[in-house]
Amino acid sequence: MNVSSEQHPHNARQLQAGQVVAIGWLLCGAALVERVPRFASGHRYLLCHHSSVLDRLTLTALALVLAAGVVALAGAIMMQAKNPHRVAFPVVCLVVVAALLVAADGVDAHGENLATQLSATPFTAGACDYIPQDYVATPGWFFW
User: How far apart are CA 48 and CA 55, in angstroms?
Assistant: First the structure.
């Protein structure tokens, strides 16, 4: 017996597992694209000395974006196994995805502040690394 959404109007408003994955992955994909140097429109910093802190911040931000994608997928899988009448669960999953993406932008904003400080060091002939570090700041959506 097929039960249509006309008989149960509250089911028509409910997020489906596929929608949670699609929305989550769309946000994560956009966040990853903005972090690709070719597409990034942020400030570019040429640093005299390599900064392992900036490397760690970049990796942390990428890990947060990837974690958001995993949360979207895990949420959709759990939605398939859970009681379909729990309306708040998909919303909670998407809020967690958004929070992880905001945290990634916060880490990137901290990296840009650090790059600004490091780039203020003047270049001195022979004192800089042989190949200076090129750091491109991610513009982000939440921190300007």
Answer: 15
Q: What is the pLDDT of residues 3-38, one digit of tens each?
A: 444 444 444 456 677 787 888 889 988 888 887 767
**Mean pLDDT of the residues in the chain:** 79
Q: Are strands 44-47 and 133-136 parallel, antiparallel or unpaired?
A: antiparallel
Per-residue tokens: 14: 């409910």
State the sign of the Cα–Cα–Cα–Cα dihedral 128, 105, 107, 23.
negative
In 3D space, the residue among 1, 20, 22, 6 whose CA is nearest the CA of residue 84 turns out to be 20
In terms of C-beta density within 10 A (0-12 exposed, 13-18 middle, 19 or more buried), how is residue 68 classed? buried
d(CA 57, CA 65): 12
Answer whether 111's CB lies under 8 Å from 104's CB.
no
pTM: 0.78
Contact 19, 91 (CB under 8 A): no
CA distance 103 to 107: 6
